Amino acid sequence: MTTSVVKANKSVFQDQAFFKRSYWSLGKIITLLLLLGVSILFIIPLLWMISTSLKEAQDLVGTRWIPTRLAWENYVDAFSFGMWPQWTLNTVIITVSSVIGQVISSSLVAYAFSRLRWRGRDTLFSVVLATMMLPSVVTMIPQFVLFANLPAFGFMGSKVWTNTFLPLIVPAFTGSAFYIFLLRQFMRGIPQDLTDAAKIDGAGELRIWWSVIMPMTKPALAVVAIFTFQGAWQDFMGPLLYLQSEKWYTLQLGLRQFEAAAGGSPAWHWLMAASLMVMLPVLIVFIVFQRYFIEGFNFSGLAGR
Amino acid sequence: MKAASVVDQPLVRRPLLRPALREELMGWLFAMPWIIGFLLFLVGPMLFSLYTSFTRYNIIADPRWIGLDNYQNLFFDDPLFYKSLSNTFWMVIVKTPLVMFVAISLAMLLNSDVPGGKFFRTIIYLPNVLSGIAAIFLWQFILAPNGLFNSALATFGIRGPGWFVDPAWTKPGMVLMGMWWIGGNVLIFLAGLKGIPRELYEAADIDGADGWQKTRYITLPLLSPTIFFEVITGIIGTFQIFTTAFILIGSKNAPVGELGQSMLFYVLYLYDRAFGKIGQGGFQMGYASAMAWVLFLIILIITAVQLWLAKRWVHYETER
Fold first, then answer.
1. Which residue, A47, A76, A105, sits at the end of a domain?
2. What's the gap in Å between the CA of B40 and the closest CA on chain A?
3. Domain interval for residue A71
4. B101 contacts in chain A (CB < 8 Å)
5. Chain B CB within 8 Å of residue A245 CB
6. Do residues B123 and A292 make contact, with C-beta atoms less than 8 angstroms apart?
7. Which of A204, B132, B259, B311 minimizes the number of CB atoms within 10 Å of its CB?
8. How high is the mean pLDDT in each 10-residue block of chain A (305 residues)?
9. What pTM was computed for the model?
10. Is residue A4 part of a domain?
11. Domain B82-247+291-313 has CATH 1.10.3720.10
């Protein structure tokens, strides 16, 4: 299953007849030029951000691309404000826990919906799909009320779940509709013989899920992990609602704090330096795991069909 | 080979329950994380919010039943409700078709056999990993009155507007900025385009169809399920705009004044009523819950209408 998906992609993307003269029509040249133009437009903001982050304050006005002097100290200056190491640690804790929770729970649930036969399964699955359409804002307030009343027994110095990481982490352990859907589609493609064989060898369902299904769904799990990582890392509203103490802030909240304190038009170079630092981990993950990002959208494309 | 092992190895353990019953139980157990989450974080909260929408409630004191008062205030005494609603509808109506048009066009460009397709695809998707509030700051800087964008316009002799400082231009500015994150939509459309059989185009070539005819009679109809999916999820997403406006309005986060009100979107106003710092009092959980339910119903109706309209324009291959 896994390999066939990858193979299909490769053959689709292979450039055919590249060397033939007839390959280059006028239409193709125009397409290429358009794509080139769009790509430049899309990359400019990022380059501008990098350029600005390395400028001295007097270079900020106008459209100078190359700073008169590369002011690397902007990064040090930006870093010296606030509690960046603590905020980074908080974000890492929340993100890693969410990824683990999401991967395990969504895959368990997808297993139930794809590889087990039980009464009510199909009805329940259509409920799962329906929740995808539900605007999250409907549950925002009551969830807040719920977490403001659930006891945390002094965890992270709080009596209740609010102002701890729990409201941001625990829901990830209940799976999310879209990832359940995605993994279910993937698991349905695994031949029944494989799990039957394991069953005959005396493996229980939990064992089959862990040692047969999980390894075989790695590419799909990677998609779930990567999108959960990105979502958690860049989440703003969740931390804004639930984290009040500055020391529990995530990077997103920290960045806003930084902007409020150091921001405004004269401090763009610091703000851009800080912003780049906050963005960097996601950018690195994208560069390393690019294939899975793209793969994820091939799955999403299927969702429309 | 696998069948052979069935014969060779007799079952050692006798299962506790009948296999069918066992599987039944296992199904529910494996689905339990989602079932618990569904009941605890979704159904429970939704019912509670339906109840609080008929009460006055500030979290600290118990909710007090006031019947339809919240809804009545919302519809008859709250100009900001209509302001936020019209801002939100403005975004939905302007942004959705524009995103669809640009994303489909880019996907079609990417889908043609030009060299470097993978490279262009990566560049167009790149901004999507650069989101979060860092990117909002970046665009605030780029669209500043003397920023990069207006300077670029100036070289063509166009005097750029004061995007996020002029109330008339805040929403167009947000739409422009949103175009940078179109990569996700493009990739979904691209996946849809890849699913269209090449033979159809070849057959059309033989019949002498031109590019426009191929787009109109092959590409768009066969892409329509993907377009439909994107329109529905896009509209639901746009109805819930929050972070961008929250950041743009500024660190004081007070959507007062003409500038703030031009970016007062529905969820932002709801947030403000529930947790807000502006003069409204904040912690009006009952009122905010009523707002949430009104939004839910609006989205429900729009989605239902779209499902009904879909019968006329969405083409499903599997339907026979």
1. A76
2. 9
3. 20-76
4. none
5. no
6. no
7. B311
8. 41 48 75 94 94 86 82 87 91 97 96 92 93 87 91 89 94 93 88 86 89 90 92 94 93 89 71 91 89 74 49
9. 0.86
10. no
11. yes
